[in-house]
Amino acid sequence: MEITLEGDFTIERADALHNRLQEALQQKQPVSLFFAGMGYADMSFFQIIHAARQSFANKRITLTLQPDLPQHLSHKATLCGLGYLVPSQ
């Protein structure tokens, strides 16, 4: 399953993203996440990505996090230990 994230990701949208990832996990579907279309993201977004990474790994289901996070989110990603989402320059 490919999930392309677009727009802003704040606490208000956290449940929708969590539910989508949880559904894929329950169905044992590999997931590829694409971030290039994102606008603003608060810390809840990064927490969900971090938790999803652990959950998918624990169940041995592939979760591919594309390194295409927009540059304006790179500082937050790095603070959260998700700097590998930032494209190398």
CATH C-level name: Alpha Beta
Number of helices: 3
Instruction: Give the number of domains.
Output: 1
Write the CATH architecture name: 2-Layer Sandwich
**Number of extended strands:** 3
Tell me the helix content.
Answer: 40-55%
Q: Mean pLDDT, rounded to whole units?
A: 90
Question: What is the spatial order of strands in the main beta sheet?
Answer: 1-2-3
Radius of gyration: 12 Å
At CATH level 3, the topology is Transcription Regulator spoIIAA
Task: Sum up the overall morphology in one term.
Answer: globular
Determine the structural class based on helices, strands and strand pairing: alpha/beta
Task: Record keyword descriptors for this entry.
89 residues; alpha/beta; Transcription Regulator spoIIAA; three-stranded parallel beta sheet
Give a description of the structure:
The structure is a single chain. The protein has one domain: Transcription Regulator spoIIAA. With 89 residues, the chain is α/β, with parallel strands linked by helices. Helix content is 43%, strand content 25%. It contains 3 helices and 3 strands, in the order E-H-E-H-E-H. The mean pLDDT is 90.
Give the topology, please:
Layout: E1 2-9, H1 11-26, E2 31-41, H2 43-58, E3 63-65, H3 74-79
Parallel strand pairs: 1-2, 2-3
Helix pairs in contact: 1-2
Concise structural overview:
With 89 residues, this protein is an alpha/beta fold. 43% of the residues lie in helices and 25% in strands. The protein has one domain: Transcription Regulator spoIIAA.
